[in-house]
Write a structure and sequence with these properties.
By secondary structure, this protein is an alpha+beta fold. It folds into 6 domains: 54 residues, Helix hairpin bin (Helix Hairpins), CATH 1.10.287.610; 239 residues, DNA ligase/mRNA capping enzyme (D-amino Acid Aminotransferase, Chain A, domain 1, 2-Layer Sandwich), CATH 3.30.470; 110 residues, Nucleic acid-binding proteins (OB fold (Dihydrolipoamide Acetyltransferase, E2P)), CATH 2.40.50.140; 75 residues, DNA polymerase, domain 1 (Orthogonal Bundle); 71 residues, Orthogonal Bundle (DNA polymerase, domain 1); 68 residues, BRCT domain (Rossmann fold, 3-Layer(aba) Sandwich), CATH 3.40.50.10190. It has 24 helices and 22 strands. Strands 12, 13, 14, 15, 16, 17 and 18 form a 7-stranded antiparallel sheet that branches. A 5-stranded mixed sheet has the order 2-11-10-3-9. Helix 1 packs antiparallel against helix 2. It is globular and about 85 Å long. The structure holds 2-(butylsulfanyl)adenosine (IVH). The site of 2-(butylsulfanyl)adenosine has 15 residues, from strand 3, strand 8 and strand 11.
Length: 661
């Protein structure tokens, strides 16, 4: 029992505080249930602080702690039909036969409690330990589907509304793909990512990450509604994002149909769900049923089992990316899982191999939850052959034999031989020609691979001398005159690509598209960039220590400087053409603004950025032509007077954000 308490506490900490769980929820629940059973059998041995007595996690130190007006409880979990029928029986015993259930999807994110006062969002608090949570208002305000101000006037003067913050799968996959391109470690799943994001210190970074939120319950002092269903419909009318797949059911059979329907359909949703929640509809009946210490007696969740199968680990192979990061991949005996044949699973990094203590030929459990890429959950130790060989992450690069290195604070191992390690060279050239970089028509990844094998390209700069090798190109399979012409034209045209694209194409570690733009427009020329000091680099907009160090390291290599001078001589662009205008939208185009006063959630500089990046213009003074005066607290009286005199509309920070919706 002690061991279970210890283990579960550690997992809770990983889940709630670090937002980095290391076991599947199902396994956690199983262990919790095991402890629960033991405590029932040996109550005298039960620890009063056992995780079975707690709702959830701890509180992160860096945010203000806020006490919930209504505690945020958790739900009882069920995993099978019988448990659900038992729940239904308990409900019937207490309130009779005459009731309805509301069936909802169980969104896989993190719960949030929003407080509205006088139609305005005043606070957003995480669940925390159920009694107190973190005040994350500033971050939550960046979520577009959460209204800051309600238009309807018939809302209660004070209410709390609860829901789940999550990230759509497509947005998450794109993000991970971008990270992969930068040679960075990928995030495990949308839930952890959303949880990590909500707890970030910099709300500007939060704003860049596309979070969403579904709302599913309302708390008020007085009873405004008779049923949960009615309140959900009204929430929708007030402008809240309520999931359209919520359904009213008359009995448990109907609930089971709903559950079975979503068991397979859930994979077609754009977001992850991990189960279904059912709630007794009538508030009066909910009150009659009441609560246990941890959860309501009028609601329960049915959790889908993450689809899991057992198969054999045939071997672990190692992929070397263009940045040299060496990623282990599990090659599995093919097995059917959630409708697709799985042959490979991610192992992320060396730590993961160590955590699983993998041995060759192990029988492993592979899980595919909402996530697309399957992963190994654990090993079936009872099937391990005696004398099985432990899998050891290699010390040298599997492609070129160079000793691998690991940087402080990073989990990935790298092959440092970026000048001669074949997959790194090919990967770098492939990156250079890719759509987001130089976007060279008539050239593809496979062609680069072939050119490399034939010794036609060794460096990016070799692309620009390919026209001298036209005769040799003609000897290649599937390479006709037309396609050669096409390719050479594409290469020639790429010389016009702007500096920021060239810079991104060079593939400097941690320099993604956005960072390349910031560096290009910040430094203006490659020569200035190449000689910039750490202070100069970190002084640029959005450039941190890690990126700055990576840039300095890149330009410290003779070979890189040589390549750049060759590319220069071929006529590529190494100077920024104009000042940076990257518009997020043109919603404010043609509109002028003056910002004055102090604001609750943003600095004036941040508001200026928001306006300009959406096409608006900042003016220095108030005139009759001005469209809006964005007014904060403690604004100078003379400005206020002038604005009033000239009939310039005064708007708040929230009104400004409304304009962007
Ligand atoms: S109702 C009294 N409805 O599941 C419980 N919760 O295990 C109120 N969740 O903390 C929660 N979808 O984070 C409710 N449609 C839904 C939900 C939902 C996801 C989460 C929520 C809650 C946890 C409980």
């Amino acid at each position: 029992m002690d061991a279970l308490v210890k283990e579960l506490n550690q997992h809770s900490y990983n889940y709630y505080v670090l937002a980095m769980p290391t076991i599947a929820d199902f396994t956690f629940d199983q262990k919790l249930e095991e402890l629960n059973q033991l405590e029932q059998t040996y109550p005298e041995l039960a620890d009063p602080n056992s995780p079975t007595q707690k709702v959830g996690g701890e509180i992160t130190k860096t945010f203000t702690t806020v006490k919930h007006k209504w505690p945020m409880l958790s739900l009882g979990n069920t995993y099978n039909e019988q448990d659900l029928r038992d729940f239904d029986e308990r409900v019937k015993k207490s309130i009779g036969e005459d009731f309805e259930y509301v069936c909802e999807l169980k969104f896989d994110g993190l719960s949030i409690s929003l407080t509205y006062e006088d139609q305005k969002l005043v606070r957003a608090v995480t669940r925390g330990d159920g009694t107190k949570g973190d005040d994350v208002t500033t971050n939550v305000k960046t979520i577009h589907t959460i209204p800051h101000r309600l238009k309807e006037s018939d809302v209660p003067p004070l209410f709390e509304i609860r829901g789940e913050i999550f990230m759509h799968r497509a947005a998450f996959e794109k993000l991970n793909k971008d990270r992969e391109e930068l040679g960075e470690i990928q995030y495990a799943n949308p839930r952890n990512f959303a949880a990590g994001t909500v707890k970030m210190q910099d709300s500007r970074e939060v704003a860049r990450r596309p979070l969403d939120c579904f709302l599913y319950s309302l708390n008020t002092d007085k009873n405004y509604f008779k049923t949960h269903w009615e309140s959900l419909q009204t929430l929708k009318k007030w402008g809240f994002n309520v999931c359209e797949h919520t359904k009213l059911s008359n009995n448990i059979e109907d609930v089971l149909l709903f559950i079975h329907h979503w068991e397979n359909e859930r994979f077609k949703l754009s977001y992850d769900i991990d189960g279904i929640v059912i709630k007794v509809n009538s508030y009066a009946q909910q009150q009659e049923l009441g609560f246990t210490a941890k959860s309501p007696r009028w609601a329960i969740s049915y959790k889908y089992k993450a689809q899991e199968v057992e198969t054999i680990l045939e071997k672990v192979s190692y992929q070397v990316g263009r940045t040299g990061a060496v990623t282990p991949v599990a090659n599995l005996k093919p097995v059917l899982l959630a409708g697709t044949t799985v042959k490979r699973a991610t192992l992320h990094n060396a730590n993961e191999i160590e955590r699983l203590n993998l041995h060759e030929g192990d029988s492993v459990f592979v899980e595919k939850g909402g996530e697309i890429i399957p992963k190994i959950i654990n090993v079936n130790l009872s099937k391990r052959e005696p004398g099985a060989v432990k899998i050891i992450y290699p010390l040298v690069c599997p492609e070129c034999g160079t000793a691998l290195v690991r940087k402080d604070g990073e989990v990935a191992y790298y092959c440092p031989n970026d000048e001669a390690c074949p997959p790194q060279i090919v990967g770098k050239i492939q990156h250079f020609i890719s759509r987001k970089a130089m976007n060279i028509d008539g050239l593809g990844d496979e062609t680069i691979e072939t050119f490399y094998q034939r010794g036609l390209v060794r460096h990016i700069s070799d692309l620009y001398t390919l026209h001298e090798k036209a005769d040799e190109l003609k000897t290649l399979d599937r390479f006709g005159e037309r396609s050669i012409e096409n390719m050479l034209r594409g290469i020639e045209l790429s010389k016009q690509m702007p500096f920021e694209k060239v810079l991104f194409g060079l593939g400097i570690r941690y320099v993604g598209e956005t960072v390349a733009r910031k560096l290009a427009f910040g430094a203006k020329t490659i020569d200035k960039l190449a000689t910039a000091t750490l202070e100069e680099l970190t002084g640029l907009d959005e450039i941190g220590q890690r990126i700055a160090e990576s840039v300095i390291e890149y330009f410290s290599k003779e070979e890189h400087l040589h390549q750049i001078s060759l590319l220069k001589s071929y006529g590529l662009q190494f100077e920024a053409q104009e000042s940076e205008i990257t518009l997020q939208s043109d919603k404010l185009t043609g509109k002028t603004f003056v910002i004055s006063g102090v604001f609750e959630n943003y600095s004036r500089e941040e508001l200026k950025d928001i306006i300009e990046s959406n096409g608006g213009k900042i003016l220095s003074g108030i005139s009759a032509k001005l469209n809006y005066l964005v007014a904060g607290d403690n604004m100078g009286p003379s400005k206020l007077e002038k604005a009033k005199k000239l009939n310039v509309p005064l708007i708040s920070q929230d009104d400004l954000l409304e304009l962007l919706k």
